[in-house]
Structures are given as structure tokens and as C-alpha cells.
Design goal:
The complex is a heterodimer.
Chain A (H helix, E strand, L loop, with lengths): L1 H17 L4 H5 L20 E2 L13 E7 L11 E3 L2 E6 L3 E6 L5 E5 L19 E3 L2 E5 L4 E6 L5 E6 L14 E3 L2 E5 L10 E6 L5 E6 L29 E3 L4 E5 L21 E6 L5 E6 L15 E7 L2 E9 L4 E6 L5 E6 L6 E4 L5 E3 L10 E3 L13 E3 L4 E8 L2 E5 L13 E4 L7 E7 L6 E7 L8 E3 L3 E5 L4 E6 L5 E6 L9 E5 L2 E8 L2 E6 L4
Parallel strand pairs in A: 1-32
Antiparallel strand pairs in A: 2-38, 3-4, 4-5, 5-6, 7-8, 8-9, 9-10, 11-12, 12-13, 13-14, 15-16, 16-17, 17-18, 19-20, 20-21, 21-22, 23-24, 25-28, 26-27, 27-30, 28-29, 30-31, 32-33, 33-34, 34-35, 36-37, 37-38
Chain B lengths: L1 H12 L12 H14 L1 H4 L22 H10 L13 H13 L12 H10 L7 E2 L2 E2 L9 H4 L2 H9 L11 E6 L4 E9 L3 E5 L5 E5 L3 E7 L14 H12 L6
Antiparallel strand pairs in B: 1-2, 3-4, 3-7, 4-5, 5-6
Helix pairs in contact in B: 2-5, 4-5, 6-9, 8-9
Classes of the chains: A mainly beta, B alpha+beta.
């Protein structure tokens, strides 16, 4: 009887342990390559996996293992998390499903009832969940943050981050750090004022808020004319990176509002289109760099900061690499915030070039005007929210790029709560056939080593692996792998739906798998033996 | 001020019903244009011809067969798509509806030709070998079921006598050679990074992964459509244009 009790207790203890995703595990996610623990896989956002069972030698044999169909009908942008035998993903816009990774069968589903009068620009999307302790966190399209019981999907707490009626929405995966959940927000097409929030994971109580548009008396407030700061945008709708050593979380911020009219908001408009380095304990802004001061072309800097330690110009440094939607690849010292280098990696016309400090020289010809102004890139950007990848194995930065221009016609922007606040409309460039490419770049210079061209500008993120592979996808539904050294295509699979997501890799039953959202399905691939 | 903004906020949360439609006047359409540019053109384009959002410059809208349906789409959005609801009053929404319905509508011009005789010209000229009208005809050329609702007589006249001048998008002519030396010409149906499908003049569909082809080139600005400049008398051309302009779709 005593023995039975001991076994029961041991089992209970094991169950308790398996339902715990500690901060230590998150911090050391790279040591647990069989799991995918955060949106970017690891806090440094490299999206590189040391798994090498699937390699150049056998990738040709990759085949689907199971497929899960979501109920959402809009772009399926979710990056799943995988650990302890379960996959957690968002079903757009704001539902969460937990799947058994062996069979693809649902363990639980959280289905959220949304208000009928939602006004969310640019799609009812969601890019994934965060996990910490025994909870899963989802940021919803109606601007709530919800904590779910990891085992059942039942709601632990549900708090309002902002009012959805004024155009605020949440689409990014939250970032769980220490005992907090960091949440970015969207809505810069509706004249909102941006912020970055952190909430106590246990209670949902707000720990701090950093306004990304400084209020009266705060440094940077004088970069906004009149009361334009109240509608200044600078939203935080793509999940940032984190460095436990600097204790800073690094986020890109979005466009100023209104998107296309600068004369109602004279000045640099801090901290729009910027990189911000924020103390995770206090929310204090430690340093910032503004990529595109006084932006009038809607080129949000909401891309992914990748943290890499490397020798730069003969000195070991903690670097931050940032391939910006504005067409430039930037390198910073992530401790001091010092700007080190930038280089154009795609066609752009919005600036005549950068000065020695990285500040752009404006090109007046690309300012939206009543007769139309042609600019490269268009407002979808050279890149966008989809993730780049850095491979320490090939020492290469991989980025999907979009080569596409737009013609912008200025109109009026009148602020009314919940209405679009833009100031221009767009026409396609006549007879232009936009295209795209997967570019491989030197991480210390931004020089393009090679590219793999694709027919249509992509919306797919990248994954590099120790198997010598880079995985990507096309708008025509092809999920494919190229050689990480040469860009040579090695494998492909037609998924049947456009790919607007980031691939991940993990292990189940001791074997490596890949997962990608495509169309309205989540597809998992493995080798025949597995 | 607080009260005013509170009232505005309250108004926004209420779904507006498509009642009491104001008369469609030039002024209402013009107001609709201004609203469209500010609230809709970001995705649908300044001319409503699409982009991130759907092309609205067409005779019939799949999601909005009636004006009431269009009103609801503008007001409430289309759940599960990128189309959000909009916080506009009923009157403003009707103004947008009036403007959207004016898009893609080509201004009527007095025509010289005769519709019935034009239908005979179409038949005798062999147009149906490549073009379809209400589901009947060949697959390689553009469908003409609603061509009259979306094209001007001047455009159609030019397309008939000088088809190379403006090849419609989506009908790119392709030249390919297989690895075993077979040469093929056709109209592109679909192409992506890895593969291409095209249809030859006989209507046969060809599909290749690109590594199966030794050569693949697009004949930019070329079309399989022959010029009818020498084949049609001026009167017959007038009749044919009148017939095509009479095709307004099934709406």
C-alpha cells in the first residue's frame, strides 16, 4: 500500500513538473532543441535550430505526417509553441488550440467570443501564444490579454489592455520573461498612441507601461508638433527579442500617425519607426535608435531584432542585427545602443542615403502628393513582420525580401475615434511585376552573398537548421528547403494555400519534425523512418 | 468636449441599419469618393481596383450582390477576412455605396453599330474559338460576359484592330522548350517559383516543373489574338463593338 502511494505521489509530482515551463527553461531554450518555447524559438530571435536529423542528405524524403485544419478563415500567421508533448497555436483571430504532437489530435481549444463591432485594420490575425509556468497567454484582436490553464485551456484571467473601439488591437505573440508577460499592440492606422506593456503572469496586473510616443514633459515629446502626439502611432505589433545579460528587451516600433501626412506632425516623431531597448523589470527606456525619422511612407520598423555575439571590426561585441522594412540592414551594439553599420539590401527610393550616424537624407520626391508619388518599397515594405533567421553554422543572415513599389496620392486625414487615419491612397505601379527573393547576407557587412528568387513577394518567415538547410514558403503555397550554403533548392511540397507564417522545428519521439501554417492548415513534416 | 467624444464613441459601437437611403446625386457620390479615399482606398486602391483588398471596379461584387448587402459589408466588414467594419453613419455608408457602385462603370457613348449584326460578326469571325460569353466558347482568351460593363468602345475597338497594344493582364504568352527539344507556345494559366501551366492554341493544358524545361520565356506585349484590322469592314467593326458593349454580365 505504501509502495502504491509512493508511485502515485511520484506520478503526481511528475505531472506537476511536466506542466511547468519555468523561466530557466525559456532562458536556456537553445539547450532544449526538441522544444520550441517562445515565438522566436529562443530569446535571441535567431530562429536557428541545432537539430540536424533532417539534413541536405535526406531532406528530399521529407513528407507530411499530420495536418490540422483551423476554423479561422483569414491569414493563418501563427507560430506554434511545442514542449512536453503538446503544440500550442492560435486559430485566427484569437482562439487557442493545444494539439497532441504525436497524432495532431486536439487536447483542448479556447474559443473566444468577439464583439460584433470590431474594427481592426489589416486583418483579424494572430501570430501565436506565449507560455510560462502552467499558463498559456494569448493577446486578442479585441485588445485583451488572456491567461489559460496549460492543461485545460480554461481561463485563469482576462484583462483589457486597451479599448478595441478606438482601433486598438493585439496581433503579436506575447513575450514571457521572468515573472512577466510583455505585450505589444497595433492600431496605428486608427490614430492610436503606441505603448509596450508588461503584466504580472500570476495575476494579470499591469507591471509597467512604456508609451512609445512621449507625453508632455518626457524626453522626445518636442519631436511632435501641437497635440499630434496623442494620435502618434508608433505601435509595437511584432514580438521583440530579449537578452538576459543586458536585462533589455528589444522591440521595433511602427509608423507615426497619420501614416502618409507629415505636416500635421512636424518633427522626428519619436519613437516611431525606431528600435527601443527596454528594461524588463521597470519598463524604462534604456536607449533607442530611430531608423526613419518623420516617416511619410508607412515603413514601420516592426521587424525582428536578432541578437548575435561576434567579432566586429576586430573586437568581440554583443551585436543586434536588424533587417528593416525600409530596405536597410543595420548593426548595433546592443549594450550601448551604438549604431555601427548599415547597408541597403533591396531597392529603395525613400531616402537619398544614410549619413555617418545612420540618419537618412529625405527624398522629397517620394512624399505622397495629390498628383501621386512613386516610392520603393510600397507600404508592405522590403520586409515586414515575417521572421529572418541567423545561422551560427554558416554565419549567415537570411531574409525574405519583397521588391515592389507603390504610387501614393495624398488626401485628407481627419481624426475620428475608430476611423482610419491615413492621408493617402495607393495605386500599383503600371506594368510592374513585383517579385521577391530569399537573400543570404553577411551578418557583419550586410553584403548579399546569394539569393533565391521567387515569383511573388513573399509573406513567409525563415528557419535555418544545423542540417544545413533554410526553410521558406511562397504565396503560391510551396513550402521548400534550400541549401544554407548555396541557396540551391533541395525539397518542396505544395501545401495548397498561401504561406503567411514562420516555420519551426522540434522533436517528437526522438525524431525531428517541421511545422508550418499554410492556407487554413497547420502541416507537420518528418522523415519516413520517424 | 468630453461629452462630444463620448457620444461619438457610443455611436460607433452601434451597428447601423441600411434604412432611409438618400437619393443618389452627384454630390452624394462625390462625398462617397472622399470617404472612400480616407477609409477604403488604403486596401482597395484609389480607383477601387484592388490591392490588399478586393477589386471593386467591376459590374458585380460577389460579396455584395445588392446595395443593401454592400451597405452591410461596408458597415460590419466581412468576418474572417481582412475587411474590417467601419465606424461611419448610415448616410456616410450610403455615400460610400453610391461611389463604389460608380466604380468600373464606363460612361455610355452613342454607338453607330447594330447589336444583332455584331453578334453575327462575332460568330463569323471565329471569336468564340478563344473567348467565352456566359460559359460558351474557347478557354484561351479573356471572358467577355460582362465586357461591356467594364470597357469603353474605344478600348474594344483598339483591342480588335491592334491587340498587341494593350495585352490584358493574366494572358501572357509563353514560349517553352522541353529538355527533349519539344517547342510549345501558349497562354499562361498559372506560374510560380517552381512550376508553370499554360494552354496552347488547341486548348491543351501543359504543366511543367521548371527544371523539366530547357527554355522558358515570356513574350512580353505579345498575344495570340490576331489583328482584325484587315478582316473587318468599318461597318462590321462598329457592329461588333456595339455587340460587345451590350454584354453587361448576368447581374
Amino acid at each position: 500500500m505504501k509502495a502504491v502511494l509512493a508511485i502515485l505521489l511520484a506520478l503526481l509530482f511528475a505531472a506537476e513538473l511536466s506542466a511547468q515551463l519555468t523561466y530557466d527553461r525559456l532562458r536556456q531554450a537553445g539547450r532544449e532543441p526538441g522544444s520550441w518555447l517562445t515565438y522566436h524559438g529562443t530569446y535571441d530571435a535567431q530562429r536557428f535550430s541545432t537539430l540536424d536529423e533532417i539534413s541536405r542528405a535526406n531532406v528530399q524524403q521529407l513528407r507530411p505526417v499530420w495536418i490540422y485544419q483551423v476554423q479561422g478563415r483569414h491569414h493563418f500567421e501563427s507560430t506554434p509553441l511545442v514542449f512536453d508533448g503538446v503544440m500550442y497555436l492560435t486559430d485566427p483571430p484569437s482562439d487557442v488550440v493545444a494539439l497532441d504532437i504525436k497524432t495532431g489530435r486536439p487536447v483542448w481549444a479556447y474559443r473566444r467570443t468577439l464583439p460584433e463591432d470590431l474594427r481592426a485594420c489589416c486583418g483579424d490575425v494572430n501570430r501565436g501564444v506565449a507560455a510560462l509556468g502552467d499558463q498559456i497567454f494569448v493577446a486578442t484582436i479585441d485588445a485583451h490579454l488572456v491567461a489559460l490553464d496549460m492543461r485545460t485551456g480554461r481561463v485563469r484571467w482576462d484583462i483589457e489592455v486597451a479599448d478595441y473601439k478606438t482601433g486598438h488591437s493585439l496581433t503579436a505573440a506575447p513575450l514571457a520573461v521572468k515573472d512577466k508577460v510583455i505585450v505589444g499592440m497595433a492600431g496605428a492606422e486608427y490614430g492610436v498612441r503606441g505603448f509596450l506593456d508588461a503584466y504580472d503572469a500570476a495575476t494579470g496586473k499591469r507591471a509597467w507601461r512604456l508609451w512609445t510616443v512621449p507625453g508632455p514633459g518626457e524626453p522626445g515629446h518636442d519631436t511632435w508638433s501641437g497635440d499630434s502626439w496623442k494620435r502618434g502611432g508608433a505601435t509595437t505589433w511584432v514580438t521583440g527579442a530579449f537578452d538576459p545579460e543586458t536585462n533589455l528587451t528589444y522591440w521595433g516600433t511602427g509608423n507615426p500617425g497619420p501614416d502618409f501626412i507629415g505636416d500635421v506632425r512636424e518633427g522626428d516623431n519619436l519613437y516611431s519607426d525606431s528600435l527601443i531597448a527596454v528594461d524588463v523589470d521597470t519598463g524604462a527606456l534604456r536607449w533607442h535608435f530611430q531608423f526613419t525619422p518623420h516617416d511619410v511612407n508607412d515603413i514601420d520598423a516592426t521587424e525582428i531584432p536578432i541578437l548575435v555575439d561576434a567579432d566586429f571590426r576586430g573586437r568581440p561585441r554583443k551585436l543586434l542585427l536588424f533587417a528593416n522594412r525600409n530596405g536597410f540592414f543595420y548593426i548595433f551594439d546592443r549594450v550601448s545602443g551604438e549604431y555601427l553599420h548599415a547597408k541597403a539590401f533591396a531597392r529603395q527610393t525613400w531616402t537619398k542615403g544614410l549619413d555617418a550616424k545612420g540618419r537618412p537624407i529625405p527624398n522629397p520626391e517620394t512624399v505622397p502628393s495629390p498628383k501621386g508619388a512613386l516610392v520603393y518599397p510600397d507600404d508592405d515594405g522590403i520586409t515586414n513582420w515575417f521572421s529572418p533567421s541567423y545561422s551560427p553554422q554558416t554565419k549567415t543572415f537570411y531574409q525574405n525580401v519583397r521588391e515592389k513599389g507603390g504610387i501614393y496620392f495624398r488626401n485628407e486625414a481627419v481624426y475620428q475615434p475608430g476611423r482610419m487615419y491615413l492621408g493617402a491612397s495607393k495605386r500599383a505601379v503600371p506594368d510592374e511585376e513585383p517579385w521577391g527573393a530569399l537573400r543570404a547576407m553577411d551578418p557583419l557587412t550586410g553584403d548579399v552573398k546569394w539569393e533565391f528568387r521567387v515569383t511573388t513577394p513573399p509573406w513567409c518567415g525563415l528557419l535555418s537548421t544545423a542540417g544545413g538547410l533554410v526553410f521558406s514558403g511562397t504565396m503560391e503555397g510551396m513550402f521548400f528547403a534550400v541549401d544554407a550554403e548555396s541557396g540551391k533548392p533541395l525539397w518542396r511540397f505544395q501545401t495548397g494555400g498561401a504561406i503567411w507564417s514562420n516555420p519551426i522545428t522540434y522533436q517528437a519521439g526522438g525524431h525531428q519534425y517541421l511545422a508550418i501554417a499554410a492556407g487554413n492548415a497547420l502541416l507537420v513534416f518528418g522523415l519516413p523512418a520517424s | 468636449m468630453l461629452t462630444a467624444s463620448w457620444l461619438l464613441a457610443l455611436q460607433m459601437t452601434v451597428a447601423v441599419e441600411p434604412t432611409a437611403r438618400p437619393a443618389v446625386t452627384a454630390q452624394e457620390v462625390a462625398r462617397g469618393k472622399t470617404l472612400f479615399e480616407a477609409q477604403c482606398a488604403y486596401c482597395h486602391g484609389a480607383d477601387g481596383d484592388g490591392g490588399r483588398g478586393a477589386n471593386l471596379a467591376r459590374a458585380a461584387l460577389r460579396r455584395a450582390p445588392t446595395d443593401e448587402a454592400l451597405f452591410r459589408v461596408v458597415n460590419r466588414g466581412i468576418p474572417g477576412t481582412g475587411m474590417p467594419g467601419n465606424a461611419m453613419s448610415a448616410r456616410e455608408t450610403w455615400q460610400v455605396v453610391a461611389f463604389v457602385r460608380s466604380l468600373g462603370r464606363v460612361k455610355r457613348e452613342p454607338l453607330r453599330g447594330d447589336v444583332a449584326r455584331g453578334a453575327q460578326v462575332y460568330e463569323a469571325g471565329g471569336c468564340a474559338a478563344c473567348h467565352t460569353i456566359r460559359g460558351r466558347g474557347g478557354p484561351t482568351g479573356p471572358d467577355l460576359t460582362d465586357i461591356g460593363a467594364r470597357s469603353s468602345p474605344a478600348y474594344l475597338r483598339r483591342a480588335i484592330v491592334d491587340p498587341q497594344a494593350d495585352v490584358p493582364t493574366g494572358f501572357k504568352q509563353i514560349r517553352a522548350m522541353t529538355r527533349d527539344g519539344r517547342r510549345l507556345i501558349g497562354v499562361r494559366v498559372n506560374e510560380d517559383t517552381f512550376s508553370i501551366q499554360f494552354r496552347d492554341a488547341g486548348g491543351t493544358l501543359h504543366s511543367f516543373f521548371k527544371e523539366e524545361l530547357a527554355e522558358l520565356a515570356a513574350d512580353d506585349g505579345r498575344t495570340a489574338m490576331p489583328s482584325f484590322r484587315e478582316r473587318l469592314e468599318p461597318a462590321a467593326l462598329d457592329d461588333l463593338v456595339a455587340y460587345l458593349i451590350s454584354l453587361e454580365g448576368t447581374r
